[in-house]
Amino acid sequence: MSAMSEPPRELAALSVEELRAALGRQRAVNSELRTVIATQAELHQAELAARDALIAGLRSQVAVTDAQIVELRSQVVVLGDRVAQLERQAGRDSSNSNRPPSSDSPSAKKPRTVTGRSLRGRSGRKPGKQPGDPGATLAQVGDPDHIVVCAPDRCAGCGHDLGEVPVAAEHQRQVLEAPRRRRGRW
Questions:
Q1: pLDDT in tens, 107-150
Q2: Is residue 86 part of a domain?
Q3: Which residues form the domain of 42?
Q4: How many domains would you assign to the chain?
Q5: Percent of the chain having pLDDT more than 70?
Q6: Is residue 43 part of a domain?
Q7: Would 134 be classed as within a structural domain?
Q8: What's 90-106 look like in SS3?
Q9: What pLDDT does residue 171 have?
Q10: What is the pLDDT of residue 7?
């Protein structure tokens, strides 16, 4: 290769021997270049074969992925239909189906509209007797008409006689009977 870097001389000034020597050098350089080109071509062919193998592998992966995508899309469609069906079922109540009102969920009931409510506002008090108001309890009568003693004579567990056992506790109850109604009158 060093011969190529030499400046060319006039061909007429060279002798035949010098020309033959230059031709030999040129042939040696040419053969070196041919081996380098062949080696480069082999390396290029090997790179192309490796690239083609990689492309074929990637194409097969793409085909598998495409098949999975198609399958998943069909599953999405099926599941979307199922969700829509379940939402329709969950949205049914006695007002938009033939189900009785007792089957409605208490937590899912819709609040009544303003037209269905009373216009009277809340007072803020709790229902029932208010603190500080006098009670209105029905007092027991001091002299009842009948007294019934309900004392057990035997122990319910072992069956022993309870006649000699001291009384442990007493409770009083009062039963009031409403007057009988006579025909059309009290």
A1: 766 665 656 667 778 888 888 888 888 887 788 888 888 888 88
A2: yes
A3: 11-90
A4: 1
A5: 87
A6: yes
A7: no
A8: HCCCCCCCCCCHHHCCC
A9: 83
A10: 47
Q: pLDDT tens-digit profile of 55-72?
A: 999 999 999 999 999 999
pTM above 0.85, yes or no: no
In angstroms, the CA 150 to CA 175 distance is: 14
Q: Is residue 61 part of a domain?
A: yes
One-letter amino acid at 141 equals: V
Q: Which amino acid is at 166?
A: P
Distance (Å, whole) CA 186 – CA 182: 6
